[in-house]
């Protein structure tokens, strides 16, 4: 009698995973899906994980355990598990994570209903583990390649027929981003990718013993070599060269520019900084033409890319250190309708003692620029009027910090930068005086801009810029807890986390 193949094969590489492993196995055995198998590859464990696996396998025939000498990295054990998989789908799980009881059933149902080759479960971090904003913001349903590329870990449901047809396997040995190399190829080849779960399905852990692979030190040459392989896969797999460049640019923004964040950069010695810059300069030279730099929305990131292209380590150091002076918090203090759009007012609180002078915006030139803006406000959503008034404000306020509002849709991730106008602050003290470090900025969002986000929820960040082409990191815009109202058909509201978002209605 022929044995019926399981619906899902769950492949788990295991190396010294106690006591987390017990919770992982328990969460799998509690799954509501009727038909699945667990293939655990013990990669030379010495902490009792090997015994715990055998104990569970003796009690449940759905569990297969393979013991092997330690390979040093999870790629080989995942491949050994994939070779033994019999399911229509394969899910790669780590031995310190857990899933909700309905996770496998919901992912399979979605894959079957939509004929999807990959299903991404909604993650939630445990033990202090942070997850990408994608998992908090993206709605359940189809997900575009550009958004899927924000998560390159392998904890996803894959159609096994696709993996076998492509002969797709993980790189073996100590290859950094080996999971990203595998997942990117699968993404590019997939007919459809789905995002599953209106609530978290997969709980990814931060181990308190510091043994997560991601927490280990990074060899720059190994890391950038893997980034090249991923970028080349995107270029080869995209039908349109412009789409390919956009994907590589976004990928470099996530995986390359992370090493130029102040915390990482300032922890390096001079030799380490120069080495990263040299490797990334070659990456950009070979894979991204300079013409793509203008499409980087974040002004700080755009300037970093320019400096990397020039090999200017000292310039990067100055930029990264100066950006700390522009750290701030941002709070929406007004949303109003304009003819042809809406206006969002944001109050900024500068955090650094050495923030640029004159930030408060209470001087004569600020009032003149504001009076000019008020005069043209009925027509400011028109492109020519908007551009002219902005140039006039920059001329008057050339030595004051400028602000950009960065908008990003949750579903498509399309980014837009909207320049702000410095406005006189409102009195904030009992004496009617101004707080010197709380400037206000007005941002005009015309309907033709908002139409790009039809049917989406849109999140917002601010970026401050000072003189000498210095700008800071982005700051998520917050909102008063009670904010929830419609302004000219657009819903402006505070999220559950207290952030400011817009909901743009769909067509019709």
- Sketch the major β-sheet: 8 strands, mixed
Proportion of strand residues: 15-25%
| Mass-distribution shape | globular
The separation of the N and C termini measures 57 Å
The number of distinct β-strands equals: 21
Q: How much helix is in the residues?
A: 25-40%
What value does the average pLDDT take? Answer: 89
**Uncertain spans:** 357-361, 429-434
Number of helices: 17
Rg for CA atoms: 26 Å
Strand order of the largest sheet: 3-2-1-4-9-6-10-8
State the secondary-structure class. alpha+beta
Describe this structure in words.
The chain is 36% helix and 23% strand. The protein has 508 residues and is an alpha+beta fold. It has an 8-stranded mixed β-sheet, sandwiched between helices. The protein has a 7-stranded mixed beta barrel with strand order 12-13-16-15-14-17-18. The chain has a 3-stranded mixed β-sheet with strand order 5-11-7. Strand 19 and strand 20 (490-494) form a beta hairpin. It is globular, with a radius of gyration of 26 Å. The N and C termini lie far apart (57 Å).
